[in-house]
Amino acid sequence: MSVIDGVSGRPAEGVEVSVLGRPAGEPGRRLHGFTDPDGNFTYSSETPKIPGGGGCYDVELDVDAYYTSQGIVAGYKKVSIVVRIDGTEPDYRVGTFITPFTHATWSLR
């Protein structure tokens, strides 16, 4: 997950990201963390991976907390994205461009 701040035009560091995985009918498992200085939230060796590979994943960004920390009142509390992963690729990238009142999302495989 990569997050770009549309107000500053720079990577959004410190956005809380939550991922709920529901691969192939298994019980959901939630991971969360914060974007790094490059605006990226990635799995690290210390982060447990969501099992299964393919399936649907709910990705949630806490836009309100991020902009509140900058003294800006956001129109959105959270941005939620549901992503389908088919499990055939070793890496997936989802990007989001956020502002206090709009967002856009893209995906690369």
From TrEMBL:
SUPFAM superfamilies: Transthyretin (synonym: prealbumin) (SSF49472). Residues 1-47 are annotated as: Disordered. Residues 2-106 form the Transthyretin/hydroxyisourate hydrolase domain. Transmembrane segments: none annotated. This is Transthyretin/hydroxyisourate hydrolase domain-containing protein. It comes from Actinomadura latina.
